[in-house]
Specification:
The chain has nine helices and four strands. The protein has 238 residues and is an alpha+beta fold. The protein folds into two domains: 4-75, Glutaredoxin; 86-232, Glutathione S-transferase Yfyf (Class Pi), Chain A, domain 2. Helix 1 (20-31) links the parallel strand 1 and strand 2 (37-40). The chain binds glutathione (GSH). The site of glutathione has 12 residues, from helix 1 and helix 2.
């Protein structure tokens, strides 16, 4: 198999990446046992879609975590979700959108807008930027993220409303998971990589917020991510 190089944002706090989308891809590659090399990019400037992760393979540069999975499914002729019915795939896609297109913005708010968390997160997310440029990049990046939050609409809500939305999403995921081992049943599927990328980036980081408290209040979700961690990141599991 030709070489697959994955570009992602820095690792910290025992997570291969502090980006939920990058951790999703890292987890998916482990789940599907796809050999790859990981490269850390200081910023997403060189990425084909201006966002991380992206991969390089056979001279192609593919951006967007879901398009990376679609590309690898095609190129490597493997379908990690082959055990799912079309109805189950539709449900998995809806949960994926809930996590990536809604819950994500609550996580972004907790990291980039909350002053206390921003002070902890800033040196990590900008750790690869030269110290000379860091203050200016921090200012511009934070301004850009605030703009993204209001463009999405999440930023129009009050702090309490944002965390209530996040708690509602987590409750929905918890209720859907119930007492199953994985979201779609007894076997893992690619939606579990999405869930791990995001939930681990809330639970396993020292950034306190009502979002993290809401996640911790669901024992089945905490046991679920621990199950995934034990299975795919055995060195890190407690
Ligand atoms: N839809 C994309 C989203 C990726 C994404 O938002 N990545 C963030 C890091 S978590 C990023 O690179 N943001 C930079 C920016 O928006 O300027 C995917 O699935 O890969």
């Amino acid at each position: 198999m030709s070489r697959i190089v994955v570009h992602h944002l820095p690792s910290a706090w025992d997570l291969p990446s502090i980006s939920p989308f990058c951790l999703k891809i890292d987890c998916y590659l482990r789940m599907a046992s796809i050999q790859h090399e990981s490269v850390i990019d200081a910023a997403p400037f060189g990425a084909p879609k201006g966002k991380l992760p992206y991969i390089e393979h056979n001279g192609n540069r593919i951006g967007d975590s879901s398009q990376i999975i679609e590309y690898l499914t095609r190129e490597l002729d493997l379908d990690f979700d082959r055990h799912l019915t079309s109805r189950e795939r539709a449900i998995a896609r809806s949960i994926q959108r809930l996590i990536e297109e809604n819950l994500y913005w609550v996580l972004v708010y907790a990291r980039w807008v909350e002053e206390g968390n921003w002070r902890i997160f800033r040196p990590i997310v900008l750790g690869g930027i030269s110290p000379l440029l860091r203050p200016v990049i921090a200012l511009l990046a934070r301004r850009g993220v605030r703009k993204q939050l209001s463009g999405h609409g999440m930023g129009a809500h009050s702090r309490d409303e944002i965390y209530a939305i996040g708690a509602g999403d987590l409750k929905a995921i918890s209720e859907f998971l119930g007492d199953r081992d994985f979201l779609m049943g007894e076997n893992p599927s690619s939606i579990d990589a999405t869930a791990y990328g995001f939930l681990a980036n809330i639970a396993y980081v020292p950034l306190e917020s009502p979002l993290k408290a809401a996640l911790i209040s669901h024992p089945n979700l905490m046991a679920y991510i621990e199950r995934l961690r034990t299975r795919y990141y055995p060195v890190l599991a407690n």
